[in-house]
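Supplementary Note 2. Why include the ligand at all?

Several targets in our set were suspected to adopt different conformations when bound, so apo predictions alone were not considered sufficient. For every target with a known small-molecule partner we therefore ran a joint prediction. The input for guanosine-5',3'-tetraphosphate is given below.
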Amino acid sequence: MTLEQEIAKRRTFGIISHPDAGKTTLTEKLLLFGGAIQKAGAVKSSKIKDHARSDWMEIEKQRGISVATSVMGFNYKDIKINLLDTPGHQDFAEDTYRTLTAVDSVIMVIDCVKGVEMQTEKLMEVCRMRNTPVICFINKLDREGQDPFDLLDEIEEKLNIKVRPLSWPISMGKTFKGVYSLYEKSLKLFTPSKTKVEEAIEIADIADPSIDGYVGENNAKQLRADVELIEGVYPDFEVEDYLSGKVAPVFFGSAVNNFGVKELLDTFIKIAPPPIPRETTLRAITPDEKKFSGFIFKIHANMDPKHRNRIAFLRVCSGKFERGTNYFHVRQDKNIRFSNATAFMAQDRETVEEAWPGDIVGLYDTGNLKIGDTLTEGEKTTYTGIPSFSPEIFKEVINKDAMKTKQLEKGLLQLMEEGVAQLFSYQLGNRKVVGTVGALQFEVIQFRLKNEYNATVEFASQNIYKACWISSKDPKKLEEFLDSKQRHIARDKDDKLVFMAESKAWLQMVQDNFPDIEFHFTSEFKENDEVASR
Ligand code: G4P
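The joint prediction is reproduced in token form.
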């Protein structure tokens, strides 16, 4: 097959949801369709439930599971689908944000009872930064949920995206009858089943009297009224609007009953984008360029503490990746040969000889690779759009064993390279502050530093609201600012300047007092980007 054909048959995507909306269940059903697993229950949940908060074995086990299920590749109707798993637990949100940089589209699962939840809102913000195309799957229709029109309004309002239903539920909960496909003009009747797939019933027209026979007169009447309203209120569905991230098509179903999933998958392979061009510091690179390029979006380290092994996850962006070839590591300005490369097909890992744009390859690494690194065939350019976001919780690292300072430094560095948390080093006093999205990370870091590096640390709470990456068009003004705020200035992992703001009100005041300084909540910004909101 040619490079163009390989690209055309690939779809790389992620499923996002608030915990418990049904991401794991939907993943499993998709894998069943792809023939990647044989029976339900084969996909281990990659969530860490609350009761597991201080259960270290659980954390380690989850790390193991999350390597196994990080990327699930399967074939469906001649399409090679790469499904990237995103951790459900919100304390691992940073990991999810990074994974989203490696996908071309997402499916968002929403629980029809709970509606749009907080975690979904945050994840959607990340999708919007890159105009990632989104398909919504409203799940659990076998339960009494909210009115479907209200759900659509809530999505538009809270997620700030236009929606277009492509299927419509007929009743809900105990009286759930099925869905009408507005896209294919067919009816699917619901019978609870974990594996059976309903055949679609072709309907010539919504006025077709046979609908009454299938779902009852009242339901048929309601459906006709709903469809009329939808067609009056929502503009026709244009694939272009979906691809540019402006409109999210919406499907209704019940993942656990395998209802509406096949329809979702069939539409997904029709409309979801194959690998798309990506920006680098020099230029946009298109997938069909002959020369290979890709970037690292995730690192898993020390699965076996006796061997310092790491797996770096590489997203292939252009050309063909070949095992055993020398590739150019842009940040280190040197060539590296990867003789050990893994493909992810369902839960099996197998050695891969070649990979194409959209594919994810696991590279065994001895410490050369960091998240955000670019590999090319020689071009000195770096993929952008893999920013760090300001953490939410900050704590100072206190070394409790002065004899193990070296081990601590090494351990901290490696954990940060793996993306477990962010480290901010203060200019003054050599203080080191770790920033995370959730509290659980501090327990993970403390445990892993002891277990893997024999270093003992404690954490001291810090009164910090946000880390703001700073810049200014005027170097003199920047210098003045740094002098005046010395105590609050730190450097991030890439040596970028960060202002550690203590409170929202104080940040506002500082912004007002230093109008020539720009404050950003992400590490990657262009001069005219939106700055931290005042
Ligand atoms: P997550 O990965 O998004 O966190 O959610 P997950 O798939 O684990 O689903 C959360 C719970 O919701 C599970 O129940 C799952 O069975 C249930 N669920 C998923 N889809 C549907 C659906 O369409 N209808 C209904 N009624 N429930 C659904 P659980 O009790 O937490 O776990 P389990 O013991 O059933 O596995």
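The chain is about 30% helix and 30% strand. The chain has three domains: 3-70+86-173+235-271, 278-376, 393-529. Comparable summaries for the other entries are listed in the accompanying table.
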